[in-house]
Specification:
single chain; mainly alpha; flat
Length: 323
């Protein structure tokens, strides 16, 4: 039974990678009949139904997984998503709250922040309002720059620029050295159409944290203002790049690949990967470059490295399937 289950789930994953959704669903359905007490089969089936826009079957499969393991975060999140897709707000909220409570104690700052970050990802008015309420509740217990970063994002996505500014400013007062308030300010400037001001804020963020996520925004903004060559030159002047940190090196490689500098991109990707061997994006960058040059065997090895670094990153599987 275990071997049949493993064979069917493996077949389903292979069919998904090849883009054969109907065949994947059939394989996962067979797996759940073979081992109905294995939550993983139901979770895979729910995910396949989601891709096929079958939201009620998705909810049913996710509920089966929850029936097997009551506090399974992935199953609860899938159940919440299915209800949300069908416009069923109350059961969706309940599922998300339970999923969050698996790793965070309800009523704590960590819980409010984690649940709010889930709602932020939906980019929907009502869910954004709930995120704001949760973050404001968390601030009553404890203030930190991460909380105000999320709050600024919630206001920004709602088009409330002044409120987003206030949240970013509060985050800066709470932790002067954090890069997050400047990431928020840069995003606000972009929404307002002020790219030069955004670039200044992204530079401030990277100055405070050489591995800041603002590097990507800095590059795209600099490319928009001055072109890719100038953006790459600006990137190479950063302290983090000169010290060989993985994030700026990887960012330079991705830009080099876009510019057609394939050999340089591969070298940057390898440098970033060897600095941080758990970085699947670096492995995928190298694999992409190898594929462009026609070295499929080497590309396959690097996509495999990407899977070993992060088995949940679909890009590695997609690359392998293409080869």
């Amino acid at each position: 039974e275990n071997l049949r289950f493993a064979a069917q789930t493996g077949l389903g994953r292979a069919q998904l990678s090849a883009g054969r959704l109907e065949a994947a669903i059939t394989a996962f359905e067979t797996a759940t009949r073979t081992a109905p007490a294995d939550a993983q089969g139901w979770i895979l089936l729910a995910g396949a139904y989601r891709l096929d826009w079958q939201y009620q079957p998705m909810a049913d499969a996710a509920q089966k997984a929850v029936d097997v393991i009551e506090w399974h975060p992935a199953a609860l999140s899938l159940l919440g998503d299915a209800h949300r897709y069908m416009g069923q707000t109350a059961p969706a909220r309940t599922a998300y709250e339970r999923a969050t409570a698996v790793d965070a104690i309800p009523g704590t700052v960590t819980y409010y922040r984690a649940l709010a970050s889930t709602y932020l990802a939906f980019n929907s008015g009502d869910w954004l309002k709930e995120a704001v309420t949760l973050l404001q509740q968390a601030a009553l217990n404890h203030e930190d720059e991460i909380l105000y970063y999320f709050l600024a994002q919630a206001h920004l996505k709602s088009g409330e620029f002044d409120a987003a500014d206030r949240a970013a400013a509060r985050g800066h007062r709470v932790e002067w050295w954090s890069d997050l308030p400047f990431v928020s300010r840069g995003a606000i400037d972009l929404y307002r159409g002020d790219s030069p001001a955004a670039l200044e804020n992204f530079e401030q963020a990277v100055w405070r944290n050489p591995q800041s996520g603002a590097i990507t925004s800095l590059i795209s903004t600099a490319s928009f203002l001055d072109g890719s060559e100038a953006a790459l030159a600006r990137l190479k002047k950063l302290v983090g790049y000169k010290l060989g940190f993985s994030v700026p090196i990887l960012s330079s490689g991705q830009l080099q690949l876009e510019m057609g500098q394939v050999d340089e991109a591969i070298a940057s990707g390898e440098q970033a990967y060897y600095w941080e061997p758990v970085n699947s994006d670096a492995a995928i960058l190298v694999a992409s470059g190898k594929r462009i040059l026609g070295y499929d065997d080497e590309a396959e090895r690097w996509y495999t490295n990407g899977i070993e670094a992060n088995r949940f990153d679909p890009n590695s599987y997609t690359g392998l399937a293409a080869i």
